[in-house]
Amino acid sequence: MEIITSRNNYLIKDVVRLRDFPSFRRTTGLFFIEGIRLCLDAASSGLKAKYLFVTEKFYSSKKKECENLFPISEKLFLISDDVSEKISDTKNPQGIFLVVYGLDNQNNINKINFNGKYIAFENLQNPDNLGAAARTAEALGLDGLIVSGGCDVCNPKALRASMGSLFRLNVILSPDLSKTLIFLRDNGMSTYAAVVRDADTFVNTMDVSGGIVCAVGNEGNGLSEKVISSCMKKMTIPMKGRAESLNASQAATIIMWEMMSR
Amino acid sequence: MEIITSRNNYLIKDVVRLRDFPSFRRTTGLFFIEGIRLCLDAASSGLKAKYLFVTEKFYSSKKKECENLFPISEKLFLISDDVSEKISDTKNPQGIFLVVYGLDNQNNINKINFNGKYIAFENLQNPDNLGAAARTAEALGLDGLIVSGGCDVCNPKALRASMGSLFRLNVILSPDLSKTLIFLRDNGMSTYAAVVRDADTFVNTMDVSGGIVCAVGNEGNGLSEKVISSCMKKMTIPMKGRAESLNASQAATIIMWEMMSR
């Protein structure tokens, strides 16, 4: 095991870039995760790591768990607490980190089951919302998640909030969500756009009998006009209170629940 | 307007304590919020502030909005950017802060409408979950939120995530949730405990025709045995996937939706 004690080590700088920059994740095909539970989830989901970083303190306290990560990791590094603080995204890092090779569950559109249930996100901004929605999607048994270019499924915060669901779910990356929705409609799926006003139907009167995909927009602006007009119907969640609209992940939760529970 | 430029000013130290320590909030009957939108929400909800803090930069860019806060604030302070960074809970503070007198929507149990719909939380840990659940409760039109001692409705993060809903909702603080639930049952309400296993009913087969309250537990441990046994029935959300359980606020969203949409 090599030892790194300098915060200025070139590899450590790259890890920080992987943590912070989606563009660097895309260029390298790598992403960054931390915390033993998420690292073990990655391992049990069949992912492979390029690097493992662990502090002496964490290794000596959780030897067995750490060693479960050794076979999937190409190179192991023992790091100082100082370096651990530098690369961590949290206030109190556990001291265990992986740099992982890109998710192979990011299938293309041809892997969609036209009889399945899917939720699609356009440019979701908050990684916690994406993570929470993925966790709900897995818990409720959706067939997969479709995400447009603007959603980053390898964001460390999203991966953490998903409790590993983003490793296991069928995630379809769509470079053009509008085109994808038209393709799915042409293949017999019902396509719905979640809107706040001028809806054709309520979420609890949607036809959920066959294959279906519901598109949900981002936190600030909702869905784009282009995506809305590519869907067969506009759907809304009836609201009684004064809150302007539901949080994107809470709205997605209600929509997924209605798709799966009837 | 007085000027504060020192991070070590005694008042600034108190503001930080209000931000970080629930016990200090309870002792003083004050709480801390930041960001213009939340501050204006507090004002329009009829709250009064003891102190307003604003940076010169923010004041000159949003003069009118700031001046809407002057009539509700007893004392105004112009602070340096350095002080703004010290008291802020966020990475990029806007530069506007209020120290507010305790919420007067924290009614006691006698204010509950026995024909209404309520959600109760036992020791919710994550303030973002409490805030998101409050936002959903308001959007869906629940009659109120019951929170046990362990949930802190004046936490700055919870208030921010609630988008002001915690100012407007009817929030009942219960020092003993189990006793409260028995009292509500004795007054004709249906009381349900959300559990992961050994349930009597599913969330979508609950009787939601009359007054109802559903108790949801904390993120790690769920509801305590004491609270579960004080409810009339145990209820669960059917899950198909591999995720261990839903996030507390996503589970609460499904439960509230089922209470309000049938």
Features:
homodimer, 262 residues, alpha/beta, eight-stranded parallel β-sheet, five-stranded mixed β-sheet, 12 helices
Helix content of chain A: 25-40%
Instruction: Give the overall shape of chain A.
Output: elongated
How many individual β-strands of chain A? 13
Q: Largest interface, and how many residues on either side? A: A-B, 31 and 31 residues
What oligomeric state best describes the polypeptide chains here? homodimer
Largest sheet of chain A: 8 strands, parallel
| Topology order of chain A in helix (H) and strand (E) letters | EHHEHEHHEHEEEHEHHEHEEEHEH
Biggest sheet strand line-up of chain A: 6-9-8-7-12-10-13-11
Write up what this structure looks like.
- Two copies of one chain form a homodimer.
- Chain A has 262 residues and is an alpha/beta fold.
- Chain A contains twelve helices and 13 strands.
- In chain A, the strands form two sheets. In chain A, strands 6-9-8-7-12-10-13-11 form an eight-stranded parallel β-sheet, with helices on both faces. In chain A, strands 1-4-3-5-2 form a five-stranded mixed β-sheet, with helices on both faces.
- Chain A is elongated.
- The mean pLDDT of chain A is 92.
- The interface between A and B is medium-sized, with 31 and 31 residues.
Secondary-structure map:
The structure is a homodimer of 262-residue chains.
Chain A: E1 2-4, H1 10-20, H2 22-28, E2 30-34, H3 36-44, E3 49-55, H4 56-61, H5 63-67, E4 73-79, H6 81-87, E5 96-101, E6 106-107, E7 117-121, H7 127-140, E8 144-148, H8 156-161, H9 165-168, E9 171-174, H10 177-186, E10 190-194, E11 201-202, E12 212-216, H11 225-229, E13 233-236, H12 248-261
Parallel strand pairs in A: 1-4, 3-4, 6-9, 7-8, 7-12, 8-9, 10-12, 10-13, 11-13
Antiparallel strand pairs in A: 2-5, 3-5
Helix pairs in contact in A: 7-12
